[in-house]
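Tutorial handout. Part one gives the primary structure; part two gives the three-dimensional structure as tokens.
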Amino acid sequence: MHNYYKKIGAALLVTFSAFNVYAADLVAGKNRAMVCQGCHGSAGVSSMALFPSLAGQSHSYLEAQLNSFKTGSRSNAMMQPLAKDLSDADIQNLAAYFASLPSKSSGGDTNLAKQGKDKVNMCLGCHGAKLTGQAQVPRLAGQHADYLAKQLHDFKSGERKAGHMNMIAKTLSDEDIKAISAYLGTLE
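Part two.
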């Protein structure tokens, strides 16, 4: 019976140690995120229409995108220089920090959003029933309409590569893109 309690104690020690590491990661991520505030907002909610909000994105998605910027597989003149010097720990800490923050709706044109509501059904399978993302698929709900429209245009033109998204975006008209982006921006 004595060995049983030792094993339980060891398991609890490992579990509580993991919580301490996670808290330290969030603090380290918050400290590292200071440089992100200019574009992505002080709490991960961007106030600029062409920059995405990071608050509430999944840890997996954020980590994958930072790694893509770091390696150059995702091209962005502002993000690549910032990401190239991030360590794996920095990327994990930043992803954990932004994933822990509450998301917020960016709002938008409600009349245009009504037109977009019926056009987002094709998004639900990957981005989730509430369009809040899952795993390495991003949260769309609440993002700025201008940012989303730019991303959809980039997928449509092939400037941004993601096989499935490139195929879907090619089926969308400019009006569809505006309406879908407006609707997504109004969601929580």
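Part three, for discussion. Residues 1-103 form a domain with the Cytochrome Bc1 Complex; Chain D, domain 2 fold (CATH 1.10.760.10). Residues 105 and 142 are 4 Å apart (CA to CA).
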